[in-house]
Structure formats: C-alpha cells, structure tokens
Input
Amino acid sequence: MAGCLWGTGFFFGKLALREMSVGHMVLYRFLFATLGMMPIFLTGWRQRQRERKPPVWTRREMGTLLLSAALGIPIQFLLQFQGLARTTVSHASLMVGTMPVLLALGATIFAGERLDWMGWLALGGSTVGAALIVLGGHETGTPGATPSFVGDMLVVASLVIALGWILMNKSLMVVHGPLAVTAYGILAGTLMLAIWVILTEGPPPLAKVSLTAWSALAASGILCTATTTLLWNWGIHHVPASRAGVFLNIEPALGSWLGVQLLGDKLGPFAWIGGGLILAAAITLTARGHDIDPEVLLE
Output
C-alpha cells in the first residue's frame, strides 16, 4: 500500500508546482500530513494520560529524532521537489528505483551486512541504469518540461539523504514503536520546514490557488505522506527489510506510468533501458532475502 501511494506523489506534486513554488508546495504537503497524523497523535496522548505514563525519550533519542526529522522532511523533500521542478515525473520516478539498492549499500556500510557477487552486480547495474536515464534527458529553456541532468541528480541526492532518515527511524522504532516515531517525526519536521520556508520565501499563498492544486496538495499530504510513512514504518517494523524493499519498486513503475499516461511525458530508449536495469537490479537484490523472525528483526 505504501509503495502504491508513494508512486502517485510526484504526479500530485507536479500538479501543485504549476501554481506555487517548491517551498510552498512542500510546506502545504506537510501541513496536510500533520493534519492527517493528528488523530493518531491525540489517540496516543490520551492513552498515555490514562496510563499516567509519559513517554520516556532520552536526550540521545531526542537528538536522533530531530536529526532524522530534519533530514527526512525539509532537506530531503526540498531537494527532491527542486529536482522534480527541473525534470519530468517519469524521470524522477525512475530515479527512485535506485532506493532499494541504496538501502542495501547502506546496510553494508553501516550495519555490517555483506553483499555477495550478485549484490554487487545488481548495484553496478542500477548505477548504469541511472546513468542511462540521465543521458536520455536533455536541457531546454523550460524547466520541468523535459528531463535534465540537474533535476535527475537532485532527486538522487534526496534519496541518499532519505537513507539516513530510514536508518535512524529504524533504530528509534526498536524502543518507541512506529506510531510514535512517525507522529513525532512528522510534527518536528513540519515545524522546521515551516520556519525555513516562511523565512526564505514568505507565507504560502492562499488566494489564486485552484481546486485542482488544493486537491493535489491534500492527496500528497494525507495519502502520499502521512499514510505512507505510517504504513512503511509499521511494515518495516514487522517484516525483514529484504522482503519490504521489493515493494519500493512499485513507486518508480507506477510513477513513470502516470507521467507518461497523464502528463504526456516521453521516455527515450536510454530511459527505458535504464529504468529496466534499475528495476531489475532492485528486484534481484531484494527478492533474494532470507526469512527472518519478525520478533528479532530490529534487534
């Protein structure tokens, strides 16, 4: 479910970007996401009041939560949608197909896991695929109308930052669970985002925003952000990462299809070949995981 909803995020974002800046669009997205998380936040608060047991967050955990929120919301999303504003939905979506491979590489570097020869082959194939997608684009005078090197690379940079967000959230969920980490993370990140955007771009516009843009913002906030983050955090808490990672491949497949079918994006032969390599590498890498007991998954 998270993969399917994430796959529509670039489509909704592109609709809203027609009427506002990247900063204002991302801020509205997370304001709607915060609104979507309020029932969960209030339910947890009432439960803690009944139990008379406030959550105990150590100073280190609070620091990790704040750093994770900063990386995962203002930094990641502003970079990602700056990239989307300079490239097409289809190209941006295909670039997201590198995420399962980045997760495997991150686990190798930071979690002590080891990639066998097939894993390194998949990593190399994904890198070649990303290069082919970039080579398949060309710059024009109209940002976002056609793919561009700068736009594609900004999307990839945001994915590297997202890797840190995922790994830090995973460590926090061992103690505090997916609901608390998701709710507090979105609230903290949205506050940081609001301060940055208002200081640099001013208050977001209210007038002259069409119903289409408001609908896209609400859908991207409630469905593509709050719901997906909750579903992903809950899912990664209960199944092995190797099993969950394969579902990330839904996002580039669905996102690129929406871009072609609904926004008129055109993918050249390099992009088709590169996208195929990325998806093949991600599926090969994530589908080969061994079963792990969910009870000890995060230990």
About this structure: Residues 19 and 207 are 11 Å apart (CA to CA). The chain has one domain: 2-288. The radius of gyration is 19 Å.
